[in-house]
Specification:
This protein has 428 residues and is of the alpha/beta class. The protein has two domains: 326 residues, ANL, N-terminal domain (Rossmann fold, 3-Layer(aba) Sandwich); 96 residues, ANL, C-terminal domain (GMP Synthetase, Chain A, domain 3, 2-Layer Sandwich), CATH 3.30.300.30. It has an eleven-stranded mixed sheet with strand order 4-3-5-6-7-8-9-13-12-11-10, with helices on both faces. The chain has a four-stranded mixed sheet with strand order 18-17-16-19. α8 runs parallel beside α9.
C-alpha cells in the first residue's frame, strides 16, 4: 500500500511551501477570517516572520460562532460536500462539530495507516479497538485504516459500546495481537481482568496503541506491566487527524510534517521557540482542510520538536514530536498549586493504586483535596492509604482525605468519555 512517504527532507520542504500557500488561500475564503489575514503577504509565507503574523486560532474563538452559523461563517464548502461530522474532544466547554469532505477523509485515513505501519502492524495482526464509537472519529479511523491495510478488526468501542467484561471475553476468545484505546480505559480493563482472575499479561496482545489523552511515564509503565505488552503512544486532534506516531524505537513520535505544518510557539506572542524547547503547538493542516480551513490552530498542547533521532525506515526522516501534555491544569489548595500531571504520576507510581480520581471542595471555608482510590487486589488498605497521604503531603504540603472505592467503580464512571474527567473542582 502506498503510504506516500516523501523521498527526503527537501521534498517535505517543497510540499510545505506549496501547501501552506493553498491553506492560506483557503482560509481567506472563510467569512470568519475577514480582517484576520488582510495584512499578510501571501507570496512570502516561507518567511518565518511573515508566517508568524498570522494570528493563532483558538477553540474559544470558534465557540463564539453560533452553532447554526458555523457552516456559513467558518466553512468554505457547502453542506452538500460534507460526508461526515467529527466531534472535537475535550472535557470542558461546548463541543464543536467539524464537517469533513470525502477528500478530507482520504487524507486523514492516510495518517492512521501510517500510524499502524510504524508500530510494525501487518496483515497477520488482529486489532481490538476500544476507543469510544460515536461522533468522535478516532475509533472509526483506526478501524477503517486497519482494514485498508488488510488488518483484521474487532470494533468493540468503549465500555458503553461493548461491556468491559465482554471485551475481556473477546480478547480471550478471538486472540487479538493489538489493543487500541485510551490509556485510562486500558488500565480499567487491566484492573477488571485482575478482579476476574484473567491473566491479561499473558494474553495474545503484544502491542498497545493509545491516543486521545496524555500518556505519562507512570501510566505507560503501569499499562505495560499489567498487559505484558509494548505501548505505542500516538497523538492527534480533531482539527487535523493523527499527526504524530511513536514507532519501534520509541524515542518520540514521528511528526507527519508533509501533511501538517507544526510549530512550537510562545503562546502569548505566537513567535517560534528554539528547537528542543517546550512551547505551544500551532498546527496547520496542509491537505485535509477543504471544508474547515484551520490556520495556525492553537491546540493547547505543550510539546517540543527535534529534527534528529527518527531511526530507520521511511519515517526516519521525519522530526520527532515530544508531548509534554496539555496546557497544565492545576488545583490551588490553601494557596498551593497542585499540578494535575504531577499528582497523576505520583498516584500511578504507587503499585497498590489501580485507579484514582481527585476532587477539591470547600468545607467550612477550608479547601479539601479528596482522593478517591481503588486498590490492587490483596493490598492492605491502611498501609496503602497511609503511603498515599504521606507522599502527597511530602510532595505538595497538603494532607488529602482518602476514600477507598470498590474495584472498577471509578473507571466505570468515565470509561466511555473521550477525555477522562479525573480532576474535578467542586468549588464553583
Amino acid at each position: 500500500m502506498d503510504l506516500r512517504w516523501p523521498a527526503c527532507r527537501a521534498e517535505i520542504a517543497l510540499i510545505q511551501g506549496e501547501r501552506k500557500r493553498i491553506a492560506f488561500e483557503r482560509a481567506k475564503r472563510a467569512p470568519f477570517c475577514r480582517g484576520r489575514l488582510d495584512r499578510i503577504d501571501g507570496s512570502r509565507l516561507d518567511d518565518p516572520e511573515v508566517w508568524a503574523k498570522i494570528p493563532l486560532l483558538t477553540k474559544e474563538e470558534l465557540r463564539k460562532i453560533a452553532p447554526k452559523e458555523f457552516q456559513a461563517q467558518f466553512c468554505i464548502q457547502p453542506q452538500a460536500a460534507v460526508v461526515e461530522y467529527w466531534r472535537s474532544g475535550g472535557s470542558t466547554g461546548r463541543p464543536l462539530f467539524y464537517p469533513r469532505s470525502a477528500e478530507d477523509i482520504e487524507h486523514s485515513l492516510l495518517c492512521f495507516r501510517r500510524g499502524l505501519a510504524v508500530t510494525g502492524a501487518t496483515s497477520d495482526d488482529l486489532v481490538h479497538i476500544s476507543f469510544p464509537l460515536g461522533i468522535h472519529p478516532v475509533a472509526h479511523l483506526y478501524a477503517r485504516a486497519a482494514e485498508q491495510c488488510g488488518i483484521g478488526t474487532v470494533w468493540c468501542g468503549a465500555g458503553t459500546n461493548t461491556a468491559s467484561e465482554m471485551q475481556l471475553q473477546l480478547i480471550d476468545e478471538l486472540q487479538p495481537t493489538i489493543w487500541a484505546g485510551m490509556a485510562s480505559y486500558g488500565l480499567h480493563l487491566a484492573n477488571l481482568a485482575e478482579s476476574k482472575g484473567f491473566d491479561l499479561a499473558n494474553s495474545s496482545v503484544t502491542k498497545i496503541i493509545v491516543a486521545a489523552e496524555p500518556l505519562s511515564q507512570a501510566k505507560r509503565q503501569k499499562l505495560e506491566r499489567m498487559w505484558g505488552a509494548e505501548v505505542f503512544d500516538q497523538f492527534g486532534m480533531t482539527e487535523g487527524a493523527l499527526i504524530a506516531c511513536e514507532g519501534a524505537n520509541r524515542t518520540g513520535s514521528h511528526l507527519w510534517s508533509d501533511l501538517f505544518f507544526c510549530e512550537v510557539v510562545n503562546e502569548a506572542t505566537g513567535e517560534p521557540v528554539k528547537e528542543g524547547e517546550i512551547g505551544t503547538l500551532a498546527m496547520t493542516p496542509l491537505w485535509n482542510n477543504t471544508v474547515t480551513p484551520f490556520l495556525r490552530w492553537n491546540s493547547g498542547d505543550l510539546i517540543s520538536i527535534s529534527q534528529e533521532g527518527g531511526g530507520e525506515g521511511p519515517w526516519g526522516m521525519y522530526p520527532l514530536l515530544h508531548h509534554a501534555r496539555r496546557t497544565v491544569g492545576f488545583f490551588k489548595v490553601r494557596g498551593i498549586n497542585i499540578n494535575h500531571p504531577e499528582l497523576e504520576d505520583l498516584m500511578f507510581f504507587e503499585p497498590d493504586i489501580n485507579e484514582f480520581r481527585a476532587e477539591v471542595y470547600n468545607d467550612g471555608g477550608l479547601d479539601v483535596l479528596h482522593l478517591l482510590i481503588e486498590l490492587k487486589r490483596g493490598a492492605f488498605e491502611d498501609a496503602a492509604t497511609a503511603r498515599v497521604i504521606s507522599n502527597v503531603r511530602q510532595t505538595f504540603q497538603v494532607t488529602p482525605t482518602i476514600t477507598v472505592r470498590p474495584t472498577g467503580s471509578i473507571a466505570r464512571e468515565f470509561e466511555a468519555n473521550v477525555k477522562a474527567a479525573r480532576f474535578i473542582d467542586k468549588r464553583g
